[in-house]
UniProtKB/TrEMBL annotation:
KW Amino-acid biosynthesis (keyword) present: no
TM annotation in the entry: 80-100, 112-131, 137-156, 177-197, 209-231, 270-293, 305-323, 335-353, 359-378, 398-417, 423-443
Source species of the chain: Dermacoccus abyssi
Cell location: Endomembrane system
Membrane topology reported for the UniProt record: Multi-pass membrane protein
InterPro entries found in the cross-reference section: Atg22-like, ATG22/LtaA_families, MFS_trans_sf
Superkingdom as given in the UniProt entry: Bacteria
Name this polypeptide is given: MFS transporter
Keywords from the named record: Membrane, Transmembrane, Transmembrane helix, Transport
Amino acid sequence: MNTAAASPLAPDAATRARRQRSWYWYDWANSAFVTTTSTVLFSPYLTSVAKAAACPDQPTDVACHANLSVLGIPVSPGSLAPYTITVSTILSAVLLLLVGAIADRVQRPSRLLGAFAWVGAAAASAMFFVTGTNWQLGVVLLIIANQCLGASLVVYDGLLVRISDESERDRVSSRGWALGYLGGGLLLAANLAVVTLHDKIGLSTGEAVRVSLLSAGLWWAIFTLIPVLGLKDVRHPERPAAASDAGTVRGSLRQLTSTFRELKHYPDTLVFLLAYLFFNDGIQTVIVSASLYGKEELGFGDSQLIVTILLVQFVAFLGALLFGRLAAVMGAKKAILLSLGLWTLVIAVAFFLPEKQFALWLCLGIGIGIVLGGSQALSRSVYSKLVPLGRESEYFSLYQAMERGTSWFGTLTFGLVHQLTGSYRLSIVALVMFFALGAYLLSRVDVERGMARAGQG
């Protein structure tokens, strides 16, 4: 089904292609922060700064048994980074809903995208100044950067509907994800080289980490210029006078209330969100727990885990493109269901993987990379077909909030199973239920019917 002729989204194929080329680059821009800062470097670095503050008379590589005082609450230095991420996640789940409602009322969404991105990039770049015992600055900057990243992604994902027709969306979303994995992987490889070879370039370990954090923030800021300038001619449709009279914030709050009330009229959209809640939680838990599983259960060293992270990053680039092609052949929904079946296979292989078998571990990493890029890219494109026209950012805020607000279910399950059984193997295999529930719910989604209800059919 091709809705281009009946849709006001883009005037012609040449304009859509130009806008799509600009749109891709925001995946490239923000993925540098996600990989270098959020995934690899900042949490361990913040922990070392917190240890220096709590135990100033001992090296940071020695266990610190003193506590920090956070708003009068004693906090272990080793728990500061996870707690900060938890607080940031909870805040995102609430704030992003309001951001989505506001974004659909702003006539020039690329400006709003740039505003969120550049504030986030400024916070990410300022992490260079987190040094000594100044853990408080690190906490504040991480929360600001994460909020701005989530807010910018709400606007960015909502633009997908504005720059492509329904027949193009799987391909466009997949290419964006692929470019993101490539860009994030390239900068991460360069930064890991800086950290590993810091002595040869005259830097301490801490200085090398801080330079890497700065590079991620600058990368985010500089490459955001491409989508902001390239999408400046994209406009949201004018709101009715009654809606605009309410004002941006007040009207957005009213619209947000209306969204929750009206969601029941879009049952396929709602079921997809529930499916995404489960299978995305499984995906995120595998991602964040893989290093722990590899180190504690299979006995791999830090250098081996770093190699694995880079391998997954670059394979995910190819995986996103591969699943984009599969979606063109079998349909995006079936391609996602295939990816969830492969995720289950990955977990089964991980359960039986022998200790110290690094070659087999790398093969598993290749499997994760292939399904990681495809499942995430196609989930975004399918959901974009189920959102009501003119309210894209508003509904993508639900998508982002669903991801961030419930992303602790899987990690809680992983931790509880380990605590009860003492086995990380049982913890990893318990995640199968998230993929099974997600696949079952996704199988109940009728994409064609959902598109018709959303006004995209």
